[in-house]
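Consider this one:
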Amino acid sequence: MSRADSRPSRRAFIGATGAVAATGLTAGCESPAPKPSRHRSPVSTPRVSPTGRHQAGITLPQPAQPNLLAVVADLGDAVAVGPLLAELGQAVHTLTAGTDPRLLGLPPGDLTVTIGVGPRLVRRADPSLPGAADLPRFSREQIAPQARGGDLLIQICAGDPLLLPVVAAALLEQAGHRIRERWRQSGRRGPNIPVDKDISAPRNLLGFIDGIVGPHTAAEHRRHLWLAGPAPVAGGTIAVVRRMELDLPRFTALSVADQEAVFGRRRATGAPLSGGTAAWDPNLGAKTPDGRYLVPADAHVRRANPTVVGVGHMLRRSYSTDEPTPGLLFISFQNDLRTFTHTLARMDDSDALLRFTTTTASATFLILPGFDRQHPLGAKLFH
């Protein structure tokens, strides 16, 4: 999708205008008495600091904001990467602080911007570093050349969907002619549903709770999420971004029991078909009295199970999309790209869920370590 063809998601527009309409209806029904009512000040959304050891927009805030816009772009061959990243980091400071006039007066609230660089740029800095490898190709892909790979990822998240295109325009204006947009995709997450103590996850477009399994504690983040070294990438992570179309009519035609067999979980609660609660690990060996697996052999929770695959955990985020067609924008963060590639290779073999998906965009990025005013974004990697 070219920059000229890009436009804010219809879902995001409906969400914003629907909120305004709902406010008006509520005000009209507040009281039958013809007396003026006091207007309460809106509750301010806590600001998320853009600085620190890690970039914001990955584990902070918690839970993740409901709205996301991902922009993937390329850099010109002669572009000095270090100065460009430093400028973008400075723009992130002013945008999240609410002092940038390009916000057009919108309060930033919980706005976060997360920036990553693609394998071509990592190889230019040091081909031995994590993030230098391209994603391999998989089955069930229909990806146009401009939607595969990319040099730069700008992930924008916020509670207010109006911020997404405004912030994207400001950052692209900051980069100017030095970058060329490849494609963009906006998406939304549904309300969070409690899964376990201090853990919640939203439903996806297929009606199932999404993101139950993953690194949740600080210790798990250190083990599975953050890069420990070498120094230029320490505190960063590896992101995979995949846009998928969903065959909703065919999935909807299944019975609830058949839908649950695809995922290996109960649709209403997220509990594995082997029993327990959503927080329980599925018992992949459990069988019915007649010898059938309670969790089918091709169920998603079996094929993508980290223990079975032999890899670490991913921090997964899925955002429902409605343009260009209904689907998901899947983003995973992990400290080893093989966590994703080995998992998808096993899923490719016989995961029932993939029969309802077609991937239309795919890329991987090194999410740069955190930064502050004394240590510009990307300074350790691109001198």
In short: The chain has a mean pLDDT of 90. The beta strands are 67-75, 112-117, 152-158, 179-188, 192-196, 199-202, 237-246, 315-321, 327-334, 357-367. Residues 19 and 367 are 33 Å apart (CA to CA).
